Amino acid sequence: MRVLVVEDEKKTASFIRKALQAEGFAVDVCHNGEEAWAAARTAPFDAIVLDIMLPGRDGLSLVRQLRERHNATPVLLLSARGEVNERVEGLNLGADDYLPKPFVIAELVARVRALGRRGGESRSTVLRVGNLTLDTVTHQARRGGAAIELTAREYRLLEFLMRSAGRICGRMAI
Fold it and tell me: Do β-strands 126-129 and 132-135 pair in parallel, antiparallel, or remain unpaired?
């Protein structure tokens, strides 16, 4: 499962990234709203973890723009403010879930996993390139029907490459 984490606090973003990667997720990180908007328009994600308070374009306007452009990627909003009217506004704009800061990282990981299950209803969870298949829910890889054992790092790399099939991937992106 590929997740976009949008968080301006670099330590928090790194903490979230490491926790999600430890659970086998492929994670991209952006630190402001403009980077996030560009990333969400150019690459497919299974879920977006989005801080509301961002430099440039805020999280609520990003959710609004994603939904206006019929991007149905599930969004988990994060906010330190936690006011009820802000949560209601975010959910009404199209966010799928809301988690107030500070949060327990295990809960964030569980919520992202749940978003992936819900988002998977409209998208296939199996990636195919040639005779290679990768199930993004069970993390099983197969080539010509034969199972392939992968480490967590190998899985993340294979998923990234399969999602990027047909595109040139620079070393820094990988």
Answer: antiparallel
